[in-house]
Known about the structure:
By secondary structure, this protein is α+β, with helices and mostly antiparallel strands. The chain has helices at 2-25, 29-78, 84-88, and strands at 81-82, 99-102, 105-108, 119-120, 123-124, 148-152. 51% of the residues lie in helices and 12% in strands. The two termini are 56 Å apart.
Amino acid sequence: MKKLFSYKILTLVAVMALAFVLVSCSPSTEKTMEVTDLMDKAAEVVTEESMATETADEDTMDDATDEMEEESMNEMDTEMTFTLDELAQFDGTNGNAAYVAVDGVVYDVTDKPLWSGGTHNGNVAGRDLSEAILKSPHGKAKLKDLPVVGTLAEE
């Protein structure tokens, strides 16, 4: 938007320069009025573009605020602490989210197709899989791609 606005200003300056040349070459009242009208129209275009740019900037600020609020919510989510009983509620069945814990960190596997229905290769969501993951072919490598939703309480 800002580049477009800059081009509009350059256009306005060019129109004004052209108007100056036209008025200088032909100082008739009729030409002067035509040039003045042309300059007024150019100024209107720049003003409208300026207002549109300000609105777009406000929208961008609103979007940035929304993103910050979402990040803040995500940060709050990562601060949740689950007991094993609480974690068991997130087993991926009956519309529940699917969470797994590994080394005290709780991960969301809900949107992972391999965890459909809350199970994956004999492992069940809603549990601490710290030992089970060590026996998996991928080990802990896949964890980096999962959203963290909290920590597992020490018992």
